[in-house]
Amino acid sequence: MPTQLLKTRDLQTGYHSGARTVVTTQGPLELEVWPGQLVCLLGPNGAGKSTLLKTLAGLHAPLKGRVEASGAEIRSLSPNQRARQISMVLTDKISSHHLSVYSLVALGRYPYSGWMGGLDETDKKTIEWAIDAAGIRPFLDRKLFTLSDGESQKVMLARALAQDTPVLMLDEPTAHLDLPSRIRLMRLLHQLAHDTGKGVLLSTHELELALQVADEVWLLQNADSFHRGAPEDLVLSGAFEAAFAHEDIRFDKQTGTFAINHEDRQPVVLMGQGVTAYWTKRALQRDGFFVPEAVEDSVPAVEGGVPVVRVQEEGGRPYWMLERKGRQDQRLDSISQLLRVLSEEAS
Amino acid sequence: MGSAYPKIRLVGLCLLLVLAFLLDVSLGSVKIPLRDVLNTLFSSSHGSDTTWVFIIKQIRLPKACTAVLAGCSLSVSGLQMQTLFRNPLADPAVLGITAGASFGVALVMLSSGNMATLDAIREVGLSGSWLLIAVACMGAGIVMALVLVLSGRLRDNVLMLVIGMMIASLTMAIIGIWQYFSSPEQIKEYLLWTFGSLGGVTDSQLISLSVVTLAGLTMAWLSSKMLDALQLGENYARSMGLNPKRARLVIICSSSLLSGSITAFCGPIGFIGIAVPHITRQLFRSASHRVLVPACCLIGTLLLLFCDVISQLPSSQAVLPINIITALIGAPVVVALLLRQKNVNVY
User: Fold this and answer.
1) Is A47 within 8 Å of A13 (Cβ atoms)?
2) Does a structural domain hold residue A212?
3) Pairing relation of β-strands A269-271 and A317-323?
4) Å between B289 CA and nearest CA of chain A
5) Among B89, B218, B234, B239, which would you mutate to test the A interface (most chain A Cβ atoms within 10 Å of its Cβ)?
6) Structure confidence by residue, pLDDT tens digits, B113-171
7) Is the domain of A174 the same as that of A234?
8) pLDDT at residue B258 in the model
9) Which of A156, A290, B171, B208 is most solvent-facing, going by the fewest CB within 10 Å?
10) Is the CB of B290 less than 8 angstroms away from the CB of A116?
11) Residue range A270-282: average pLDDT?
């Protein structure tokens, strides 16, 4: 039976600022990270994710309670022993001009290398493995400052992997990355956790991405509100909606995405199924229209003065029929045409 | 990266070093043919003029040796500062560490009456030179610890330099007040010392200076693994198992030994500490301190010997203060480097 890689008991985190004590998570938190698990620590910016992460890594003292890594109290471990339990990818910028990618990854062997940083065969093998696991071989000989944000994040990941620890923690690893790099990194982490049996804990404020890859979500809304569970459970229980509630933004349980609230939105009835209907709905919502859930019959809507959009297909190409009261049906060939016609009408 | 090129470069630099050393020993206000210089250096002198032997063995050789020691010390100390503070403009002079050492020297020179001029200390011999070294190193260490404590609260590279400069001005102001109330002879002695000089270190002092410098360099070399880790910033370094307190202690100790002892005997020599690490990184294209520490010794020695040769104004009786020459050469180098890099935060 597998045991927890990381475990907290009765944990309360925060920091001292002068004479004041700031509590960032009230707790008491009872958390675990299991082998092969990808845990996403979610929360709005400034909710205390970094403090919690640093506390779990043993770099920051908890206000109350304890953190255990592989059974040992983490603050009682020496820095070196701790570094053999937990490796980290931080948000700190590396500014060294002459550091090469390989040397940086090799620094991951710091807790194992000799007095002067000499590397033995095991060290070299682990470095090679980390390079392949993170997929950074193509830019191995380049200097750090020539890499893109996505590439350098992967290099930092490789450095953490070279540290060869049961637990891997990443603080906002997807910040500054473009969408494809974000998705690629998350998938890579997911796969790594499952393939290597490492416990991966990452903090992010990007809920949609976390929903797709996380085995478990820790939702930190503010000091007093902490939820944990499978992402789907948290969606159904309404915890996400509550956590990200904002007057302008709404969490859509149906799709697991955020929508921007528009006041006094004009309704548009959408008839149709499949991919085309899905994207049409998104476009309409983005433009501020209210799209009611599946409607059986379009006649009452048209009679009530609500425009109806019917998604249709002809020879493999979609088109849109717009029906309005007292007007001739109009055929439109793209979503942008549809939006233009509808918004002209609205204004 | 070809493996032959760095080796050729290393051999070339070593040859240059030997050449510069010989040049430094053979040039001076008294003209001595190169053959006699070599004779005196490498064989038990016969045939050479006894005055020449005296000049070479008692004056020029100690001076060239001092240049070697000072070149190593100041550049390695600068390298440590730049990595520890993660600041490309850090060096013992800029951060006020030299000022701290000056304060120690002023303490000895100005406080205890006419008897304690530098000449008097020289006459006391070994114990006197140890006193001067100890006081200067302590002054350097205290200022460095102070800058480090203050900069820990700021986390901003530019502000940290400003703090270093302020501490330097403060220290110099205190010395200024002291000078104001001191006798003219003492002030003259102190002022001459501030111009910097590689001469005037006697045989016995050279021994104490070598011992301290070697100790400092050994510590610096042994701290190269820590320095490598600190390049990634303190947070990463800690996550890799570095003990930040111990690392700082070792680095501050070795750096104050190096810059303090040299400042005690040669005066505040500027620009070597800031320029040499940059030149070395450019030449060796490395960020590993196992390479950089010895490489800095090599380049620093070479540069200071070169400056010393120039300061003797070949074919003239006059000798310029070494501080003026290092500034003349170092300042343009630093400006050129900054223009090339354009970004102060990248080193």
Assistant:
1) no
2) yes
3) unpaired
4) 10
5) B239
6) 544 455 555 555 445 667 778 888 888 888 888 887 877 676 666 677 788 888 888 88
7) yes
8) 92
9) A290
10) yes
11) 86
Amino acid, single-letter form, for residue B70: A
Residues of chain B contacting A99 with CB distance shorter than 8 Å: 231, 287
What's the gap in Å between the CA of B282 and the closest CA on chain A?
Answer: 8
Could you report the per-residue pLDDT of A81-96, keeping only the tens digit for each?
A: 999 999 999 988 887 7
CA pair distance B161, B93, nearest whole angstrom: 11
Name the residue among A59, A96, A115 with its Cβ closest to that of B231: A96
CB contact under 8 A, B242 and A94: no
DSSP letter at B232 equals T
Q: What is the dihedral of CA A161, A165, A171, A174, to 10 degrees?
A: 30
Domain count, chain A: 3
Q: What ipTM, to 2 d.p.?
A: 0.80
**What are the residues whose beta carbons fall under 8 Å from the beta carbon of A184, sequence distance 6 or more?**
A150
Q: Are A201 and A180 in contact (CB under 8 A)?
A: no
- A-chain residues within 8 Å CB-CB of B228? 107, 110, 117
Contact (CB<8Å) B240/A111: yes
CATH number of A317's domain = 3.40.50.800
Please name the residue of chain A whose CA is at the shortest distance from the CA of residue B290. A116
- Show which residues on chain B lie within 8 Å of chain A, measured between beta carbons: 1, 86, 222, 224-225, 228-229, 231-233, 235-236, 238-243, 281, 285-288, 290, 341, 345-347
Looking up residue B305, the CATH number of its domain turns out to be 1.10.3470.10
Closest residue by Cα to residue A164 from B15, B16, B240, B122: B240
**Is A97 within 8 Å of B341 when comparing Cβ atoms?**
yes
Same domain, A196 and A68: yes
pLDDT digits (tens, 9 = 90+) for A139-159: 888 888 888 888 889 999 999
In terms of pLDDT, which residue wins out, B166 or B111? B166
At residue B344 the predicted structure's pLDDT band, cuts being 50, 70 and 90, is: very low
